Batch of 4 targets.
Target 1
Amino acid sequence: MDRHPANPILTREDIPDLGGRIRDVSSVFNPGAIRLDDTIYLLLRVQTRGRETVWMLAESADGARFTVRPKELEIQGLDELSVTVHHAYDARLTRIDDAIYAVFAVDTDAGCHLAVARTEDLEHYELLGLDTSDEKRNGVLFPARWDDAFWRLERPNRAAADGTTFSGDTMQMARSTDLQTWTVTAPLAHGRWHYWDERIGSGPPPFRVAEGWLHIYHGIATHGAGADIYQAGVMLLDAQDPTVVLGRSRQNVLEPRELYEQVGQVPNVVFPSGLVIEGHEPHEVADPDARVLVYYGAADTCIGLATTTPAALLAALKD
Ligand code: BMA
C-alpha cells in the first residue's frame, strides 16, 4: 500500500472546539468509511482528554482533505442498556441495500461486546442490538446478504496475559437474521505464532473482486508489554463460501514506519478500519486496477490514508 503524501490526513488539530469536554482533544483514530454519492465520509473515534470516546463525522470530496462537522454524534439506545457503557469505538461502516450499518465494540462493566446500529444520515445512530454472547471486537458486516441472513466476521477476545493488550487470535464467521442475535457458523483464520500476524482481527469490511472477497485485516506481532506491532495484511475469501480462505499474505502490506505511526498514544500501530473503492460499491466486483482508499488509525493518535488496487492486493497473496 502507498501512503498518501498528505498523511496524516486527520489529526486532533482538525477536531473543532465544541467547548466542554470536546475541546483540545487528545486523539482521533480508527475511522469507519463510506462513500455516498460523491462524498467520502469518515466516522471518527475521537478521544477527549478525559479519555472519553465520542463519535464525530468528517467529509471529503477527494478522499484526502476532510472537514469535520462541529457536532457530537448520537447513538440512540446505548444509554438504555442494562449494562454501563464506557466506550463505543472502532466502528466499521457497511451499506446493505439502502441501509447503512455501523458495527462497533462496546466496553461495558460486563465485558467488551459487539453492537450494531443503523443510520440514515451518518449523524444519528439507532442501536439495533448488543451481542453479549461472548467478548468480541473487530466485527465487520459483509456488504451483501445471502441465505436470507446478514453475515459478519468477528474476533473473539482472549484473556489478556499480564501486561499485554486484550486481543485475540481467531477470526470467525457469524450469521444473523435480525442483526441482534448472532450464531457463529465457522472459524475463518487463526494467528500465525512467531510471525507478523500472531494475533488477528478484521480491518474494514470485505469487498468483491473477480477472484472472491478481498479482506484487509490487522495482525499483531507480540513483543511483550507495550511493544506489540500492529500491521495490515490481506486475505482472499471464496466467493461462494467466504469461510474458505483461498490466500493470505505471508508478509504485511503496511507496517508502522513513519513517525506518526511509530510514536503516539500506542506506539507502532497501523490499524486499517475504513475502505472506499473508486467507481465501485464494495458488493460489486471491482476492476483489478481500481483505486482503493484505506483509512487507518496511526499509533491510536491520528488517521492515515493508504492507497492500493485489487491487483496489488492479489499480488501480495502470491508470495
Ligand atoms: C486494539 C484496539 C484498537 C487499538 C489497538 C492498538 O486492541 O483497542 O482500538 O487501535 O488495540 O492500541
Target 2
Amino acid sequence: MTAVFRPRRSALYMPGSNARALEKARTLDVDCLILDLEDAVVPDAKALARTQIVDAVTAGGYGGREVVIRINGLDTPWGEDDLVAAVKAGPDAILVPKVNTPADLQRIAHKLSVCGASPDLNLWAMMETPEAMLNAGAIGACGKDPQVRLSCLVMGTNDLAKETRARLVPGRAVMVPWLMTCVAAARAGGVDILDGVYNAFQDEDGFVAECAQGAEMGMDGKTLIHPKQIGPCHAAFSPSEEEVAWARRINAEFDKPENADKGAIQVDGKMVERLHAEMGRRAIAIADAIAARG
Ligand code: COA
Ligand code: MG
C-alpha cells in the first residue's frame, strides 16, 4: 500500500445546513473541508443538514480537497443516523466529536466495518474535552491500530475552554500545555494534528499570529471558519521556497555515493545530519503535493 501524502494546512468548517457554503467549497483553494453536522447546526436543522451533506458529497466536484464529515456523537439523537449517512456518502474521513477515550473511536471503527465502509475511509478525532487531554497519548496511539483507521487529531479549543473554564486569551498561554501534549500524542501515534479555530475572523493580525504559533508548535495545519482565513493560513503552514530548496540540496548531497556511509556531512559550511535530510523530506512532499495539484 503506497501512502499518498496529503497536505493538511487548512481545514475549513462549514455548517451542513448552509447550502451556499457547501457549493462555494468546490471553488475554494483549501486542503480539507469539514462539513459539519454537529456544533454549527441547531437541532431543528440536523436532518436538513444531513441530507444536504449527503447530496453534496455524493455529487462530488470537490477535486483534490479532502472531504470530511463531522458527525454528532453517538450519545445524541442524531449520531447513529449521521454515521450511516456519512458512510453512504463516502467522504475521505469522518470527524468524531468529543472523543474522550480510545474506546470511543474503537466503537465507531467497529460500526464502520459492520456497515461495510470503504477501507479508505479514515477517522479524525476532536480533542476538546478534559478527558481527552488526560487520555491524549492513548487516543493518539489509535493511529498505530489499522482497525481504528485514525489519521488526524483536531483541536477543539472552543469546547475545551467551555469544559475546563480556561479562558481563550491572546497568546493562548493557558492552552499551550494541552496543545503541545496533543502534538506529542499525534506524533507518537503517527497521525496529523490540526490547530483549533480563531473565532475573530475579521482580525487578520491576530489570526496571522495564531497561525505562526500553531506552525511553531508543530501543528500540520489549522482549522478555519471563514474563507478569508485560507490565504494567511497557507502562508504560515506551507514550507518556504528556501526551506524546500535547502531540503532538496541536502537530500541530493546524502544521495551521492561518496556520502552513502556518512551520518553527518558539510553543506555550504554547515554541519548537516541525516535527520535534517529526513525532516526536509516532509517539506519536499508538501511542496510537491501542492505543485501537483496545480
Ligand atoms: N465555508 C464556506 N463559505 C463560507 C464560510 C464557510 N465556513 N463562511 C462564509 N462563507 C461564504 C459566505 O457564504 C459568503 O459567500 P457569498 O459572498 O458568496 O455569499 C462569503 O463567504 C462571505 O461571508 P461573510 O458574509 O463574511 O460571513 P457570513 O456572515 O455569511 O458567515 C459565519 C459568518 C461565521 C456564520 C460563517 O463564516 C460560518 O458559518 N463559519 C463556519 C462556522 C462553523 O462551521 N463552526 C463550527 C466549527 S468551529
Ligand atoms: Mg466542539
Target 3
Amino acid sequence: MKILVTGGAGYVGSHCVRGLCDADHEVVVYDDLRAGHREAVDKRATLVEAGLADLPVLEKTVKGAGFEAVMHFAASLDVGESVKHPLDYYENNMVNTVRLLRVMEQHQITKFVFSSTCAIYGIPESVPITEVMSQSPINPYGHTKLAMEWAMRDSAVGWGLGCCALRYFNAAGAASDGTLGEDHDPELHLIPIVLQVALGQREKVRIYGVDYPTHDGTCVRDYTHVEDLASAHLLAIESQQTGCFRCFNVGTGVGSTVKDILEAAREVTGHPIPAKPAPRRPGDPPELYADPTEIMSKLGWKPKYTDIRQTVRTAWQWHQAHPHGFQSE
Ligand code: UFG
C-alpha cells in the first residue's frame, strides 16, 4: 500500500514508518522537522519536508501520487503548553487535520489512522478504561484530539472515510536495536527524565504529587512500548475498510506508578536516581490505564512488552548510546 505518514520523523511516527517499511509498504513521510528528526526517518521512505499548513506542498505531494492511506502523527502534544497556548493547539491539531482530511476527500484517499490519546477520557470514572467510557477531556490538547475524532466519524458517514483512532496511553521505550528513540526538546516525559538523571544530565527527578489516591500516592500510567504502538498501527491500516469509524485503546492494561518507574530505572541502570516530592502538576489525572480487550480481539494486537523493566531497558539502551538524542550521531 502507498501510505502518506505525517509526523513520520517524530517519536511514535518514526517507529511506525519503520514497521510499515518492514512490511513492504511504500511510505512518504511528510514532516516539517520542527519536532521531528531527519535521522529518524527510515532510509526506505521518502521525506517531504513541509508542514500541513503549507497547502500547495501538501496538494502537490498528494496529487496523482496514488496514496491509498494516510497515517497522521503530526500534532502538538504537551498538555501543559496546550493550557497556556490553546489556540496553537486548535490551529495545529484541528485546523491542520481538517486541511489534511479535505485534501484526502478531494483525492479520494479513504483510509486513515489517527493518533488519538487517553487524554480524551479526562478523569475517568473508573479504571481500566474502555472505549465506551465517557469522553470529557480536561485540557485543550484532549479537546482538539476528541474534536478530530468527531470530524473522522462525520467523514465516515459523509464521504466514505475509513478511519481508525488509536487512543495511545503513555508511549515509552525505544527500538529494540537501539537505533531509534525518544528525543524531545524540551523533554517533559517521565522515563527520559529519569534516565537523564542516571546519565548525570540532571540532578534529581521531581515527583509531581505524592498524595494521589493510589497505592503509593503517585500517579498511575500505562507505559506502552513504542514498537507495540507501531504494530497496532500496522494492524489498523491493513484491516481498514472504507466508510467506517473505529477506535481502540492502545495500552498494556498494566498500570505503573511514578515510583514504580523509578524503581525499574534504578534496577536497569544501577544508578540510585535521587527523587524528591514536588507539587502536583496541573491537569494530571491520578490513574490512567487501558482495557485493551477491544484491540486484542478485533485487531489481534498483543503487546510484546508487558514488563515495565523491559521497556525501560530499551529506553536506557537508546539514551546511553544517544545522550544528546539524534544530535549525538
Ligand atoms: N512526572 C513526574 N515528574 C516528571 C515528569 C512526569 O512525576 O519530571 C509524572 C507526571 O506527573 C505523570 C507521569 O509522570 O504522573 C507521566 O508523565 P508524562 O509527562 O511522562 O506523561 P503524561 O501522562 O503526562 O502524558 C501522557 C501523554 C500525553 C497525554 C497524557 C494524558 O504523553 O500525550 O498522557 O494524560 F495527553
Target 4
Amino acid sequence: MASNRNLLVLPGDGIGPEVMNEVRKIIAWMGKKRAVGFDITEDLVGGAALDKHGTPITDATTKIALEADAVLFGSVGGPKWDTADFSKKPERGLLRLRKEMDLFANLRPAKVFDALVDASSLKPEIVKGLDIMIIRELTSGVYFGEPRGRHTNAKGEVEAFDTQRYTTPEIRRVCAVAFELARKRKNKVLSAEKANVMYTGVLWREEATKLHKESYSDVQLSHMYADALAMQLLRAPKDFDVIVTDNLFGDILSDEASMLTGSLGLLPSASLGAPDATGRRKALYEPIHGSAPDIAGKGLANPIAQTLSYAMMLRYSFDLGKDADMVELAVENVLKAGYRTGDLLVGNTDGVKKVGTQEMGDAIVKELDRLA
Ligand code: NAD
C-alpha cells in the first residue's frame, strides 16, 4: 500500500551501507509495529556512484532527491577515490544535493546521554544533561561569496581572497528556522556573529532582532559574539538551547559542540530547505561522521548516529514526534544497559557489553519491542 511518504535512501561508501542496514531494521519494525511506512527508493552516491556511473551522483538520482519528502544519507568518500578529479570526488555528490535542494539550515544537536557522560573531555557536571541545537546557515556566507580567488597583486605578491556576503532574506530564513525550533524546545535562541568587527555581523544582528520583534517575540532572543560563544560552550554549555549562526562560525562552533558529547558515532544532523506552498521542506538527514575507511567492512561501526538521523527525519519531515521519541529512548536505554561499540569504550568500562554494528542495531530493535 502506498504510504504517501517518499524516502530516498543513499547509503554511500565505507561504513555508510553498514550503518544504514541497521536503520533498515528499525524502518521495518516501525512499519510493522507502528504503521509508519515509507515508499523507499534506494540509490548510489559518492564513490559507489562514481564506480558505476562515472559521476558521484547522477542527474536521475538528483531528480529523485528533489522530488522525495526526505533523503536519508549515509556517508561518502574513502582512499580508493582520493586521486579522483576534483569535480568527481565522492563528496561532490553530497555538495550537489545540498546546493540543488537549497538546504540552507543545518541542524546539529549536541546531546549528552547520561550513560556516556564520562566520554566527554569536559567534567561530568558541566555536560550532564546537555541538550543543545546548533543551526548553521549552509548555503551562503564566506564559502560561497564572490569575488573569491587568488592573483598576484601590483607589488608582485600572491594574494588570496574570499568574500563574506549575506542578504537579509538569507539571514531571516535561517533565523526563522531557529525561532520555530526553539518554540518546540526551551524557547531560547542565541544568535552569534561578529557585529563588533564585520558588516555582515551588524546586518545579521539587525535582521535577527527585527524578525524576532515582528513574528517571534514569545521566544527569548539573545546575542553573542561568536568568539565569546566558543568560550561559553566550554564553560557553561547548558546555558544554551538553540544557537543560530552563519556558515563559517557554524562550521567551527558545531564541531566544537559535538565534541562535548564524546563520540562522532553518536551524532546526527538534518539539513532543511525552504517550505513550499504546502509547508513541505526539502530535507536531508545524515550522521556527521564520514565513511570511516579505517573500520569499514569490519562490523565495528556505531549505527547510533545514523539511527538518530532517522529519528530526526521522523520528527522534522513527517511530524512523527512520538515515534522519534521512541527511537531516541530505545537508543538511550541500550546505552544505559551497557551496550558499547568500540568508539564508546572510554573511561570506566566495568559492566559494559562490547558489541559490533549488527548487535547494536539488534539491541535497539529489541528495546523498541520492549517499549512497545
Ligand atoms: P570519519 O568521520 O570517517 O572518521 C573519523 C574517525 O572516527 C575514524 O577513526 C573513524 O573510525 C571514527 N568513526 C567515524 N564514524 C564512526 C562510527 N559510526 N562508529 C565508530 N567509529 C566511527 O572522518 P575522516 O576519517 O576524516 O574521513 C574519512 C572519509 O570520509 C574521507 O573520505 C572524508 O572525505 C569522508 N567524509 C565524508 C563525510 C560525509 O559523507 N558527510 C563527512 C566527513 C568525512
